[in-house]
Amino acid sequence: MKNNYKTIYGNGLFLVFYSICFPYHAHVLPSVHLNIKSMVVPSVQQSEIHGVITDAQGLPLAGVAISVKGTQKGTVSDFNGYYQLLVDTNDVLLFSFMGFKTQEVSIQSRTELNIQLETDITALNTVEINAGYYTVSDRERTGNISRISAKEIEIQPVNNPLAAMQGHMPGVFITQNTGVPGGSFNIQVRGRNSISSGNAPLYIVNGMPFGTDVFSSIGNQIVSGGNPLNGIDLNDVESIEVLKDADATAIYGSRGANGVVLITTKKGRVGKTSLNIDIHSGIGTVANKLDLLNSEQYIMMREEAFANDGVTPTTGNARDLLLWDTNSETDWQKKLIGGTSVLTNMQAAVSGGSDQTSFRLGGGLRNETTVFPGDFKYLKASGHLQLAHRSKDSRFSVSFTGNYVSEVNNLFSQDLTSFIFLPPVAPEVYNDDGSLNWGPVGGSFNNPFGALEKDYTVKINNLVSNAYFTYELIQGLTARLGMGYTTTLKEETQTTPTSAINPASLSYLKPEAYFNHSNIHSWLVEPQVDYQLDMGKSSLNILIGSTFQEQTVNGQSIYATNFSSDLLLEDVGSAGTTRPSSLFSEYKYHALFGRVNLSYDSKYVVNITGRRDGSSRFGPGNRFANFGAVGLAWIFSNESFVLKQVPFLSFGKLRGSYGLTGNDQIGDYRYLDSYASTTYPYQNNSGLEPTRLFNPLYGWETNKKLEANLELGFFKDKFWLSATWYSNRSSNQLVGYPLPATTGFTSIQNNLAAKVENTGVEVELRTVNINSDGFHWKTTANLTIPKNTLLEYPDLENSSYAQVYEEGKSLSLIRTYHALGVHSETGTYEFEDIDGNGAISYPNDLQSLVELDPKFYGGLGNTLSYKGLTLDVFFQFVKQKGYDPLYQSGAAPGRMSNQLSQVLNRWQNPGDITSVQRFTQSTSSNAYMAFNNSLYYGDNRFTDASFIRLKTVSINYKLPKGILGAFSPEVYMQGQNLLTLTKYKGLDPETNGSLRLPPLRMMTLGARITF
C-alpha cells in the first residue's frame, strides 16, 4: 500500500510538472483521479497493470498519458517509460503523447502491457524546425526551410549528407561528381547567384560555421576536390535543414545569399541507458556500360579512315594496326572500372540520462574499396560526444557537443575511367614477368596501369565542437552564450616512381613527389539574449545577439624531384630539387543580429530579422553592411468563417517574405596589393612577384529575395500541399575583372553593376493514402521549375565577357556554332556561316545559344509499412541537357581511340544522309577540323541528358519482442542508384560531360540492435 501511494504521488507530481512545462499540450493529458478511499480499500474487481512505453526505436518515452477510457482515471509514464495503474479487467486504456498516434488497447485480464507508440506524421503542430538561431514550429514558420530527418537519412547507404539530400528538397539541386569514395559534390540552392564569386551555401554544424578552404586541391583528378561534408558521420546526424528565402537566411547576413545548410547531430535522450548498434555491409558496381566497338569493328574503322584520307598506315601513325595484335580483344571498361566495391560500416552509440543530465557517446568505422583494379580503399573513423545538464529549477543549462572524424583515402592520382576509350587491340597490361607492358617497340603503349604504380594518400582530421550556456535571468528573459571551435587538418602525399613512367618518356619525365599540409582553425563566440512574452492571445519573442569569429588557414606544399632512388620518394630531404610554396590567410568577422517575432491568436505571424556584418575581406571603407528581412504568415484555417465554408480544410496558410542578404565569398586580402614568392629561384635566391592590384573600393555583393507561399492541408492533413514562387536578384557583382596583359595582371577584383535573377516555382506534396490498423502508406513528392537570367550587364558587348554571357539568358549559356548536319556530298559536319566569309571561324560564327540549367527536377517517395515490415522507395528525376557521349573520347572517329558503336552509322558515300561524319585519322583533314568545331563549339555536341532514377529502395523488418529475448533487432536491405531510365547513351546522365567514375549502384544488408 505504501509503495502504491508513492507511485501515485510521484506520477501526480510529474503530471503537474508536465502541464506547467508544456501548457500548450496539457489538454491532451487526462486528469489523475486520486480517490483516497479506493487507495485504502481497493475494489476486489481491480488489479494492477504495468508496463513500459517506447518509441519506434525502442527508446523509453517519459510523460506519456495513460487513461482509462470513459473515466477520469489515469497516470503518466516515468523517465524510464514505466507506468502502473489500478484497473478493472474489462477496461480499455488510452495511450497518448505529443507527436505520436494515440493507441487504444483492451486490458483483457492482463497484468503487463508494453506499448510502442508510432510517430504521428500528420501532427504538424509538433514538428520543430531548426532555423539556426532559433527554432520554430512548422505550423507558424514564416520562412522557407526544407528538412530531412535521421529517419530519411538512415535508409540510404551513402557517406555524405549531400548524397542523402539529393532529390528530397525543392529548390536544392545537387549533383555527385564522382563515384570514388570521398569525392566531390556540387550544390546550388535556388540557382547560381554570382557571375564569378562563390555560389556555395553556408554550412553550419551545431551552430558552428564549417570551413571548406583546404578542400579545393584535394585529389587532383581522382576525387575532384573532395567535399567538406565527408567529415560528418551520417549516423550522428539528427536532421538537415536548408534555409532558402530571405526570412530564413537574412539573419546570417553576408553569408546567406546562397542558402544555409544546417546540420544538427543527435543528442542524448532521457531514460534508461541504451546501447544502439548498427552494422551493414554491401557491394557497389558501375551501373552502366558504354556500347563500344569490338576489335573487328575498330580495325575496320581505322582502315577506312586511312583510306578516306588517302594515307598509308606506318608504324609511326598506325602502331595499333602494325605493331599490336589485331586479333586480341580487351574490354577496357571491365578491366578498369568493372570491379566490385566492398563496403563495411559499423556504428555504436550509448545514450541515456536523467531528467537533469543526458548524454550520448558514439563511434563508427566505415571501410570502402573501389571498383578500380588494385587494393585501394577509403577509411573513415568517427567519434561523437554530447552532454547536457540543467539545474533542478531548470533556469540554468549547459550542453557540449564534439564530433571528430578521421578520413584516410588511399588511392592513386588519376581516375582510370578516362582510359576506357583505349583501343580494344591494345597490348596486355603486364608482361609474363609481372612488369608493366609498355608496348612492343619502346613505349608504343601508354599503359593505364602505370597510374596504379603511383601512391596517393590524403588524410583529413576534422573536429567540430561547441558549448552552450543558458540562464533564465527572470521569467521570459534568457541569456545564452555559444562557443565553438573547429579544426581541419589535411595531409596529402603523391609519389610517381620510375615504374609509373613510360620508358619512352624518361628522357624528360622523372620520378617525383608532392607533399601538402594544410589546416583550418576557426573559433566562434556568440552571446545572445532572448525574451519571450505571452499576452493573452499574443506572443512576442525578441532575440538579440552578436557574433565574433576568426578563421586562420595555413598551408605548405613541396614539389620534389631528382631523387637518387625510388625508395626515397617519401623523404623530401632526399630530393635533389625542391620547389616549396606556402599559404596563409586570416579571416575576421563580427556581426550584430536580431529577431522580432509577433504572433496573434495563432493566426497572424510577423517575423523581422536583421544583421549588421563586418568582414576583413573588404577595404576599410566598405567592411560593414546591413542585411534584413520581413516575413508574414496568415494561418487562415484558424478563421471561423473558413472552417464553416471548408470543413474538410485542416490547415491553410499564406506566407511571404522579402529581404536583403549578401555574399562575401571572394577570398581574403583581395583588396590589397599582394605578392608571392617566385616559383623558380634566381641565382639560388627566391624573390617576390606581384599577384594582385590594390582596390579598397569594392563592397558587398547583395541579393534581394522575394517569396510567396501557400500551404494547404485537407482531411486532418492526410493531404498536404505547398506551392512557392520565388525571385532572387543578385547585384553589385564581385568579379575578377579582366585586364590587358600589358598591365602585368590578368584581372582586378571589382564590383560590376550586373544583375542576375533566379526565379522559380517549388511544389511539395505529402499524402497519407492508407492509415489503417497494421498497414500504412504515405507518399511525398517535390518539384522545382527554376529559371536563371542575366538581367543586366553594362557595356557587355565591349567587355571580355561578350562571347560568354548575353542579357536575358542564363549564366550557364554556351555560345556555339549552329550545326546543319553532315554534308551529303563531302561527308563532314557542316555549320551555318553567319558572317558569310566562306569559313567557320571563332567568334564571328557563334550564334546558337545552349543553356545547361535543369528545366525541372524533383523527387517522389513512397513508404509502406505493415506491422514490423517497412518498404521505402524513392525516385529522383531531372530534365536537362548534357554533353553527347559521342564526343567524350575527345578523338575524331577514325583516330586511334575507341568509339561508341553509333559511329558505325557514318557517312560513306556521296548522297548518304546520316548524323555521323566520315572516318578520318589525319589532323590536317577537313573532316578532322569539322570534328573539332563540333567538339569545342558545335551545338551538336549537346543532347538530352534527362533521367528518372530509382534512387533508394529500403526494406526494413523489426522482429517482434520476445523472439530474441528482451530486445527486438531490425534487419534491413538497402539499394542506391538501382535503375536509371534515360535516353542518354553515356555512362551516367548525372555526370555527363566528364570522364569520371559515375555514382555506383550500391546494395547493402545490415542490422540494428538496441539493448
Written overview of the protein:
The chain is mostly beta strands. It has a domain at 2-116: Sandwich (Immunoglobulin-like), CATH 2.60.40. The protein is built from ten helices and 48 strands. The protein has a 22-stranded antiparallel barrel. Strands 10-15-16-13-14 form a five-stranded mixed beta sheet. β19 (357-369) and β20 form a beta hairpin. The longest helix has 20 residues, at 2-21. It starts with a helix and ends with a strand. Mean pLDDT is 86; it is low at 1-44 and 121-125.
Beta-strand residue percentage? over 45%
Poorly predicted parts: 1-44, 121-125
The CATH architecture of the domain at 2-116: Sandwich
Write the CATH fold name of the domain at 2-116. Immunoglobulin-like
Taking Cα atoms only, what radius of gyration do you get, to the nearest Å? 32 Å
- Basic shape: globular
Arithmetic mean pLDDT: 86
CATH superfamily of the domain at 2-116: Carboxypeptidase-like, regulatory domain
Query: How many DSSP helices?
Result: 10
- Head-to-tail CA distance between termini: 33 Å
Largest sheet: 22 strands, antiparallel, barrel
Provide a compact summary of the structure.
This protein has a domain at 2-116: Immunoglobulin-like. The chain is 8% helix and 45% strand.
